[in-house]
Specification:
The chain is mainly alpha-helical. Helices cover 65% and strands 7% of the residues. A hairpin with a 2-residue loop joins strand 3 and strand 4. Pfam families: Flagellin_N (PF00669).
Length: 311
């Protein structure tokens, strides 16, 4: 086959274009730190990278969910600790008021303290975080404890509770679940209706029980007969707090697991998509040398023409 000057020129230009493409690829990898800049360069790596990135975004969302849940649980936990301390104070006052030897003045003074304790329990019932009431069920925007009564949602629509005339909407008994992994949900809230509106053996809710304690003391009657009911209410608070502690422990384990999974996924993504900088610098340097050598060779081969020999 006859080799012409034009064939040599076209072959040189084709090789020159391929050399430029390699230089461009190495330069892009060095600038971006990524193995590929277009899916067409390596479809398999591109698909694996997209999947790993999607998994990382999912883990990040679950971590945000877990952080929100942890803040909510810690706020509720602090409120229940306060309630337990207040229960101890309430028991001390009731034990003190169980004796017939107290005078009328002392009884009334204790009654006033009990009513203050009730209002403090009301403040606990209205514990909030970020403007959301933690004991309100799914109705987190309205305070559950309103005008001396722990309100709850009526099945017929209007608000009802110990004070039905208030006309204000309060909490319900719905659970708010937070997804921490596919198929793994944890409850965000403690049901305030269960905590404060559950009736004791005599049919009294917790706030109604506190009212009766204060009423008896104001009438000069000891309250030793109400200590059994106090045990019921106190046991319910303790059980609720214990359950919340178990949720908090599980949440901390899930946060640790999510953090570990994020680290493993990031490492996998790095292996799939990130370049070895030292290797790319070496390849780029070698390709630059090859490119210069090719240019020099092409210049020497293509420079002479027939006109060069006819002069």
């Amino acid at each position: 086959m006859r080799i012409t000057q034009g064939m040599m020129a076209r072959q040189f230009l084709a090789n020159y274009e391929r050399s430029m493409q390699r230089l461009d690829r190495y330069q892009a990898q060095l600038e971006t730190g990524k193995k590929i800049t277009r899916p067409s360069e390596d479809p398999v790596t591109a698909v694996m990278t997209v999947r790993a990135q999607a998994e990382l975004r999912g883990i990040a969302q679950f971590e945000r969910n877990a952080s929100t849940l942890l803040s909510w649980v810690q706020t509720t936990d602090a409120a229940l600790f306060e309630a337990q301390d207040l229960m101890k104070t309430l028991r001390e006052k009731m034990v003190q008021a169980s004796s017939d030897t107290l005078g009328e003045t002392a009884m009334k003074a204790l009654a006033a303290e009990i009513r203050q304790i009730k209002e403090q329990f009301g403040a606990i019932a209205n514990t909030s975080i970020g403007g959301r009431y933690v004991f309100g069920g799914t109705n987190t925007l309205d305070p559950p404890y309103v005008e001396g009564a722990f309100q709850e949602t009526s099945d017929n629509g209007p608000a009802t509770g110990n004070d039905p005339g208030s006309g204000k909407y309060g909490g319900n008994d719905a659970v708010i679940d937070v997804a921490l992994k596919p198929g793994i949900d944890l409850p965000l809230n403690v049901i305030g209706k269960t905590l404060f509106n559950t009736q004791d053996k005599d049919g009294r809710t917790f706030f109604a029980f506190l009212d009766q304690v204060a009423d008896q003391l104001e009438q000069g009657r000891p309250v030793g007969d109400l200590l059994g009911a106090l045990d019921e209410h106190e046991d319910r608070f303790l059980t609720t707090h214990t359950t919340l502690g178990a949720v908090e422990g599980r949440l901390e384990l899930m946060l640790s697991r999510l953090s570990s999974e994020a680290g493993i996924t990031e490492e996998l993504l790095s292996r799939q998509s990130d370049v070895d900088i030292a290797e790319i610098v070496t390849r780029l340097s070698m390709q630059e040398n090859v490119h210069r050598a090719a240019l020099a060779t092409g210049a020497r081969i293509l420079m002479p023409t027939l006109m060069d020999f006819l002069r």
